[in-house]
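[job 4471] stage=fold_predict status=RUNNING
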Amino acid sequence: MSIIHVTSPQQINEQVENNKMVVLNFWATWCGPCRMFAEVLEQLEDEVDDIQVLKVNVDDHPEISEKFDVMGIPHTRVIMNDAMYEPLVGHIPYDQLRTMLLAELEEASKA
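[job 4471] inference complete, writing structure tokens
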């Protein structure tokens, strides 16, 4: 899969319906930590199956950011099994993010 830059809530809904886990990232071009975290998300997308990364540019789509209560960036929401997890705010190291997401996928597969 590849990272999808979404422009509407409908695109997010479609991806949530069609994927086991969605990682929804809010970012901006001027945000240094967002650029650093983008590398983490690219690596995650390349190495972990069953995860779809979506990105929303907060400057281009403030209405989507508002819908998800984004107050600071980078802001990431994990959506799985119709549940949205608590937001992850700021840069998260790859190993930490990968471990957390794989644990959630494993837990979901047991249910």
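[job 4471] summary: Residues 41 and 53 are 7 Å apart (CA to CA).
[job 4471] exit 0
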